[in-house]
Amino acid sequence: MNEFSHLDIVDRQIIAALQDDAMLSSAALAERVGASAASCWRRIKVLESTGVLRGAVRLVDAEKLGCAINIICQVRLKNHAPETVTAFVGFMQDQSEIMDCYSMSGDWDYLLRIAVGTVSDYERFLMRTLLRHSSVGTASSHFALSQVKYKTALPV
Predict the structure, then answer these.
(1) In sequence order, which residues have a C-beta less than 8 Å from that of residue 54 and are 6 or more positions away?
(2) SS in 3 state form for 30-67?
(3) Residue 80 belongs to some domain of the structure
(4) What is the pLDDT of residue 6?
(5) Mean pLDDT of 52-79
(6) What is the structure's pLDDT at 29?
(7) Is residue 55 part of a domain?
(8) I need a surface site. Which of 41, 52, 83, 84 has the fewest CB within 10 A?
(9) Is the residue at 119 inside a domain?
(10) Number of domains in the chain
(11) Residues 70-122 pLDDT 10s
């Protein structure tokens, strides 16, 4: 049982509603979940203080911003020494093109989702940045042809 299994139906409805629209007013949220605005506000504060709810963001259309090319890149480190892993993780945090980075089991150490505007932009990033980092042994890139599904909301 996880530490948040105690969430009741109203908490879960609040989470679902805010994942759908983080800009909902307290009144609109209260109406949607069938609770008072004051109750919703208190519940949100508890959800924030326990870390269930984190910062609110606005989703951006990547194509309209010129970053519509998604590359899935698998990375293998040169070795798994703690200092190598630490250097790689720090490096990932500093790269604005890297949207997601997952430590993986299996043949590859990390899986990245990289967003760029053009194939040339990715080639520059790959050749001049990623592969030149001292922790990176090799990488394999796969270009997404289309986005079939994209979600930001977790099931509650």
Answers:
(1) 48
(2) HHHHCCCHHHHHHHHHHHHHCCCCCCCCCCCCCCCCCC
(3) yes
(4) 82
(5) 95
(6) 96
(7) no
(8) 83
(9) yes
(10) 2
(11) 999 999 999 999 999 999 999 999 999 999 999 999 999 999 999 999 999 99
**Residue 113 sits in a domain of what CATH number?**
3.30.70.920
Q: What are phi and psi of 54, to 5 degrees?
A: -115, -160
User: 95 and 130, same structural domain?
Assistant: yes
Please answer whether residues 143 and 71 qualify as being in contact, where contact means their C-beta atoms are separated by less than 8 angstroms: yes
Helix (H) or strand (E) holding 93: helix 82-93
Grouping H, G, I as helix, E, B as strand and the rest as coil, residue 14 is helix
Residue 48: both structure tokens together: 């924030």
CA distance 44 to 15: 9
Output the domain CATH number for residue 42: 1.10.10.10
50 pLDDT above the threshold of 90: yes
Q: Give me the domain span that covers residue 75.
A: 69-143
Q: How far apart are CA 17 and CA 97, in angstroms?
A: 29
Is the same domain home to 39 and 105?
Answer: no
- The confidence score (pLDDT) of residue 2 equals 59
